Amino acid sequence: MTQEEIDFFDRIAPTWDADEIRSTPERVTTILSRIGIRRGMRILDLGTGTGVLIPFLSQLTGPEGSVTGIDLSDGMLDRARAKYGHLANVRFLKIDFEEELIPDKYDLILMYSVYPHLHAPSDTFEWLFKMNMNADGYLVVAFPADEEFINNIHHDRKAEHEHLPSAGRLAAIFRSWGYESEAIAETKDEYIVTVRRLVQ
Ligand SMILES: C[S@@+](CC[C@H](N)C(=O)[O-])C[C@H]1O[C@@H](n2cnc3c(N)ncnc32)[C@H](O)[C@@H]1O
Q1: Ligand 1: which of 53, 114, 141 to mutate, judged by most atoms within 8 Å of the beta carbon?
Q2: CA 138 to chain centre
Q3: What burial letters (b/e) apply to 116-142, b meaning 16+ CB within 10 Å?
Q4: What spacing in Å lies between the alpha carbon of 71 and ligand 1's midpoint?
Q5: Helix axes 54-61, 25-33, angle to 10 degrees
Q6: Which residue puts its alpha carbon closest to atom 12 of ligand 1?
Q7: Which terminus of the chain has a lower count of CB atoms within 10 Å, N or C?
């Protein structure tokens, strides 16, 4: 992340929860119900922001599991910690997940409303799968909206990877990088793509 990006997220952090109207509890619950979360999972929430997913993930994995929320914006992390720092199975870490090593391995790595912010998605996936993914683990790229909605928010962005393709097209791109990948939702309210290691 550049300092400019960190400053941007610090600036919008105070109003993020009020402005992020698409992540209603109902929509978040529906999206998470589609991605196979089981009790006891170790879950990594990359770009956790103010922790929009955290209470849901904490409950779904239960006391035998854990949730690690990662972000680089102090503005976002301070809010996440204030709201959910008391949950026993939750921790927050300040890390640039594209540049720094994340501790431990996980069963599920989530990127929720985060993918267009990546600078080097294919390198980052390779690194995450190598360093942080358990053998049967999988990654999920998700949004509470379709690509048209997301691209309208990011209309000033020029780099190719910053333009979000349809979920089906993104899954095909991940397959071309050597993963198993499937678009499991492609509607106005749900965009979900799963990514797994290719079984040889
Ligand atoms: C659009 S917000 C989404 C936040 C949250 N997932 C949500 O849906 O409310 C993207 C978040 O990803 C974080 N982020 C982006 N790139 C990052 C990186 N390389 N390392 C750590 N955090 C990053 C930003 O700081 C920001 O909080």
Answers
A1: 114
A2: 12
A3: bbbeebeebbebbbeebbeeebbbbbb
A4: 6
A5: 40
A6: 47
A7: C
Per-residue tokens: 99? 């540049």
Q: How many CB atoms lie within 10 A of CB 34?
A: 14
- Ranges of H-type helices in 34-176: 54-61, 74-84, 121-132, 147-153, 167-176
156-185 pLDDT per residue, tens: 665 655 789 999 999 999 999 999 999 999
pTM of the predicted model as reported, rounded to 2 decimal places: 0.96
What are 43-76's pLDDT values in tens digits? 999 999 999 999 999 999 999 999 999 999 999 9
Residues with CB under 6 A from ligand 1: 1, 9, 20, 23, 47-49, 52, 70-73, 76, 96-98, 112-114, 117
Query: In order of start, what are the domains of the chain with their CATH numbers?
Result: 3-197 (3.40.50.150)
Q: What is the strand order of the sheet 106-112 is part of?
A: 90-94, 66-71, 42-46, 106-112, 133-143, 191-197, 179-186
